[in-house]
Amino acid sequence: MPAKGRDRTVKRGFKEDFLDKVSNREAKIAVIGLGYVGLPLAAAFARKGFPVVGIDVDSKKVESLSRGESYIDDVPSEELRSLPDFRATTDFGALSKTDAAIICVPTPLNKTQDPDIRFVMAAGQEVAKYVHPGMLVVLESTTYPGTTEEMLLPMVSHDGKLRVGEDFFLAFSPERIDPGNPVYHVENTPKVVGGVTPACLEVASALYGSVVEHVVPVSSPAAAEMTKLLENTFRAVNIALVNEVALMCDKLGLNVWEVIDAAATKPYGFMKFTPGPGIGGHCIPLDPHYLAWKLKTLNYNARFIQLASEINADMPRYVVGKVTDALNDERKPVNGSRILVLGVAYKKDIGDVRESPALDIIRLLQGKGADVVYNDPHVPELELDGEPLRSIDLTEEALRWSDCAVIVTDHSDYDWDWILQHAGLVVDTRNATAGVGGRARVVEL
Ligand SMILES: NC(=O)c1ccc[n+]([C@@H]2O[C@H](COP(=O)([O-])OP(=O)(O)OC[C@H]3O[C@@H](n4cnc5c(N)ncnc54)[C@H](O)[C@@H]3O)[C@@H](O)[C@H]2O)c1
Q1: Is 107 near ligand 1, meaning CB less than 6 Å away?
Q2: pLDDT tens across 355-398, in order?
Q3: Whose CA is nearest to atom 13 of ligand 1?
Q4: Beta carbons within 10 angstroms of residue 316's beta carbon
């Protein structure tokens, strides 16, 4: 039996205060970096009734959000305007009043394909200026195992002057958002969380548990960092495998799509991946290199990652080879031929061209002297090596004008039947035209 009155004298700590604020939806949340990851996350917290401030260094994005105009398809402008308590700012001073700071800034590679964590460090430095008792700091940017504890912790704790797990809380929770996915979004995608201490894990899990259906706790930030890299390395390696199977089927005179569909009827032990013109986006082409780099520091060569990256990176060249051969069959050189690229986004139904294989395909074709134009309903314009390109209207004339149309991205908006009626030659890298008849000669991957 506790002594009489003991309960009243128990000192409540920062952890309990934080948990109370979460359950009362009073915890003020800052999301740092309002891109494909940060904006949907900020919106998810705001929808649940939390006061949210979004902080970004890009004043154009902040101005656009302040006008109620979204630039991310997954958060339509109407939804943005309906959020009860969300504002955007470039002022990191807002952190002095927030209970949590969630960092969602980019983690690119530098020219030598090594991790460039400058943005994480810059955001961390801002957080360190405003870290205050009881604050939770979470890193969501994809990064190599060890980043949270080796790089962020010393900065945010002011070299240990603030005690992690007591004075403030620190965790890593990888973002798994799949832009454009109509089924899985922030709320129904399980969230992996690793805290530096058990209290950090408890606090971070409580916060995420109030917006996502399932929180998956792991033993450390490094385990959470590695989980994300396993997921994306798994994808990169499997895509490379089917891409190589496509090359093998080509040599064997087999239809790779038929073979994959047949293999996919196996009810266990096979997971379907499809070949394509290469990989793109901010994640799959980059993330495995974060892991390979970390292992290099430990004298280990991540061989699967190296091989997968070579095979995937070479696919645009293979596609251009297909275009060259297809034109050659019609007694046309690539030099001077008119090529219409259909779809430049890195995957269907989104407008993101980061690392898109379409860019390499255009570059390679232009390098061979082709006259290249593109159409993409989701990408009205893009910049290629400093040169602006605009999406042309997809008309019967445009299709007839082209010596070859190359399907790089199989957006749902495209009417393949109509395209095959009016094009003469089509190179289809996505099996988009399977079963569709028409006038065009179709060459598959
Ligand atoms: N896009 C995805 O599908 C996806 C999915 C899962 C994980 N991730 C990871 O999430 C992270 C963010 O990716 P993203 O696609 O949202 O990037 P993004 O480029 O769309 O957005 C990042 C935002 O951060 C801002 N920013 C940069 N430096 C900043 C700083 N110091 N302070 C404040 N804001 C800053 C940029 O202006 C930009 O608006 C990356 O690590 C990425 O690997 C991305």
Answers
A1: yes
A2: 999 999 999 999 999 999 999 999 999 999 999 999 999 999 99
A3: 106
A4: 23
The reply to whether ligand 1 has any atom less than 6 angstroms from the CB of 65 is no
Ligand 1 atom index nearest CA of 143? 41
Residue 86 Cβ < 6 Å to ligand 1: no
Give me the residues of the chain with pLDDT under 70, please: 1-11
CA angle 393, 317, 444 (to 5 degrees): 65
For ligand 1, is residue 389 a contact (CB within 6 Å)?
no
CB 406 within 8 A of CB 340: yes
Q: Catalytic residue among 104, 200, 249, 283, which?
A: 283
Residue type for position 398: A
**Domain spans of the chain?**
12-219, 287-444
Give 118-140 pLDDT, tens digit per residue: 999 999 999 999 999 999 999 99
Residue in 31, 32, 36 to alter for ligand 1 test, most ligand atoms within 8 A of Cβ: 36
- Judge if the beta carbon of residue 58 lies within 6 A of ligand 1: yes
Which tokens go with 99?
């209970």
Q: Report pLDDT for 403.
A: 98
In contact, 402 and 370? CB cutoff 8 Å: no
Note the Cα 317 to chain centre separation in Å: 24
Quote the pLDDT of residue 9: 53
CA 104 to centroid of ligand 1, rounded, Å: 5
**Interacting residues of 392 by C-beta distance below 8 A, sequence separation 6+:** 340, 373, 374, 375, 398
pLDDT at residue 2, as a whole number = 42
Q: Is 200 a catalytic residue?
A: no
Q: Which of 39, 282, 291 to mutate to test the pocket of ligand 1 (most atoms within 8 A of CB)?
A: 282
Q: Cα(135)–Cα(29) distance, rounded to whole angstroms?
A: 10
Q: Which residue minimizes the CA distance to atom 20 of ligand 1?
A: 35
179-202: b or e for each residue (b if 16 or more CB lie within 10 Å)?
bbeeeebbeebebbbbbbbebbbb
CA distance 17 to 261: 54
Q: For residue 59, how far is its CA from the centre of ligand 1 (angstroms)?
A: 15
Which of the listed CATH numbers 3.30.70.1560, 3.20.20.30, 3.90.25.10, 3.40.50.720 matches domain 12-219?
A: 3.40.50.720
By the 8 A CB rule, do 358 and 277 touch? yes
pLDDT at 3: 43
Overall CATH class of domain 287-444: alpha beta
What sections of 180-302 are H helices per DSSP? 198-209, 221-252, 256-263, 287-296
Q: Do the beta carbons of residue 165 and residue 137 sit within 8 Å? A: no
